[in-house]
Each structure stands twice: as C-alpha cells, then as structure tokens.
Specification:
Layout lengths: L3 E12 L2 E13 L4 E5 L6 H8 L7 E6 L2 E2 L5 H11 E4 L11 H6 L9 H14 L15 H13 L5 E5 L7 H18 L2 E5 L3 H4 L4 E6 L2 E6 L21
Parallel strand pairs: 3-8, 3-9, 6-7, 7-8
Antiparallel strand pairs: 1-2, 1-4, 4-5, 9-10
The protein binds adenosine-5'-triphosphate and magnesium ion.
Magnesium ion binds next to α1.
C-alpha cells in the first residue's frame, strides 16, 4: 500500500479576481521507506504540495489517499487522528519553543498520544539519541547552534514514530555544511530505521545526496530521478526489462 497517493490532484487559489493554479493535475505516490526531494523554482508549488500531502489543505480537484483512505471522505476528527498518527513535520525555521529545553520541545507532539510518563521519557531519549543530541537534552534552543536546533526539530518529528516525515525547505536556514549534515542524518534514519521522508529544497548542492527527485514547474510535476536498479557491473548485461514506474 502507498502511504500517500495523488491522482490528478489540482489546487487552485482564488486571489480576488485572479485564480492561481498552484498544482496542476499531479500524479504522485510515496511508498514506505521512500526518500523523496521535491524541487523547483520559487512559486512552483512545493509548499502547496507538502501541505496537501500533510492533509493541512485539501485538493480543489483530483483524488488523494493517505494510508489507502480517500482523504476527502474523512470527518474533521478522523483527519486530526490521521495527521497526528501519520506525520512528523520539520519546518524551515525549526519552530522550537524558546523557553523549553530540547527534551521538552521533543516531547510536545506526544501530548496527543496519551503515553505514560516513563514511556514519554523513553521515547524522547530515543529520539534525541537518534539525532546525536542526548547530551543536550537540558539545553534551550538559544544555547544550541543552528544545526543542533534543526536536529532537535528532527527528533521532535521522529518522537511519535510517524509513517512519514514532511519537511518544507528544512535546510534553508542552515549553512552548507550543516545543510548537508542534516540531509545525511535524514538519509541515515531512512536507511537504518526505515523512516520515510518527503522534503522540499531549492538547493542543488543537496540533490546529489538524494535518491528520488521530483521537480515542479508551474504546478506540474516531472520526475527527475528515480531509484535505479543496481548498476550493472563490468561484463554483465544491463537489465533492460526492468522499469521503474512512478
Ligand atoms: N494561500 C494562498 N493563496 C493564494 N495563492 C497562494 C497561496 N499559497 C500559495 N499560493 C500561490 O500558489 C503558487 C505556489 O506557491 P507555493 O508556496 O506552493 O510555491 P513554492 O514552490 O513553495 O515556492 P517557494 O520556493 O518560494 O517557497 C504561487 O503562485 C503562490 O502565489
Ligand atoms: Mg515554499
């Protein structure tokens, strides 16, 4: 089963008399274990697409399924449940609460999950360990570097053990070294723990670190790169009968 499936999804916004087509007939899917970058110029629809994937907004046309369920058929409470059980979110500006420590920030999404105190503590410690910040549990955001803050945000996204982590330009506030380190951390979580990521980026320097790239142009999607079958070794005939489908 796909985690997320778009069939001819269109999103229009009305700005006074002007209609903006932010997404135009997009077909797309996310499988468990995927690691997908959405790229494209400013205004091409990346944020719109992530908001739709995260059920923060709904399509004007077309069909969208999450975990096999048609999203437009769900009631508001069912949608709330789906959001809090399915997604972890990472934001461009980290969105950490300044007066809370790293571990308190990471614990926040668990409030909706009714876990015992001990379970909460364990989950938070596990998430901070996964991003290499266990020693910084008691630090507030202003006592951390930009790269560390974004790692706290990754831990906060991980702590609910979501099906899918969504991130809108998660590296935009980071310098190059920290941006690449963040993508490497996401890749490591993807490879070792099977965490699925869909994130947007403008930054070409990051894309060489990504397996599957889809590109938006004026709200239309094209696939730039799909995961390849293992490269043929010398002397082996390339497999031509295999086709990766979107
Ligand atoms: N709430 C809204 N109301 C009206 N128009 C909107 C709204 N949100 C987005 N748009 C329009 O939809 C189009 C796509 O915007 P979107 O924010 O998805 O682009 P983006 O690829 O994320 O751009 P950026 O790289 O600058 O973040 C733009 O033309 C934008 O003006
Ligand atoms: Mg955007």
């Amino acid at each position: 089963m796909y985690l997320v499936e778009f069939a001819s999804v269109t999103k229009r916004y009305q700005l006074g008399d002007v209609e903006v087509v932010a997404l135009d007939g997009v077909d797309f899917h996310v499988q468990p274990g995927d690691f997908v970058a959405i790229t494209g110029p400013s205004g091409s629809g990346k944020t719109t697409m992530l908001n739709l994937i995260g059920c923060l907004d709904s399509p004007s046309d077309g069909e969208m399924r999450v975990m096999g369920k048609a999203v437009n058929a769900l009631s508001e409470p069912a949608l709330d449940q789906l959001r809090s059980r399915t997604y972890g979110m990472i934001f461009q500006n980290f969105n950490l609460i300044p007066v809370l420590t790293a571990e308190e920030n990471v614990a926040l999404p668990l409030h909706l999950h009714a876990l015992s105190r001990q379970e909460t503590r364990q989950r938070v410690a596990e998430a901070l360990r996964a991003v290499g910040l266990e020693r910084f549990a008691g630090f507030r955001p202003d006592q951390l570097s930009g790269g560390q803050r974004q790692r706290v945000a990754v831990a906060r996204a991980l702590v609910t053990r979501p099906q899918l982590i969504l991130a809108d330009e998660p590296t935009a506030s980071l310098d190059t070294a920290n941006a690449i380190a963040l993508v490497e951390l996401m890749k490591q979580l993807n490879a070792e723990q099977g965490v699925t990521f869909v994130f947007s980026t403008h930054d070409d320097r990051l894309l060489q670190h990504v397996r599957r790239i889809v590109e938006l142009r004026d709200g239309k999607l094209s696939v730039t790169r799909e995961p390849q079958a293992a490269a043929p070794r010398d002397g082996l005939v390339p497999q031509t009968d295999r086709q990766e489908v979107m």
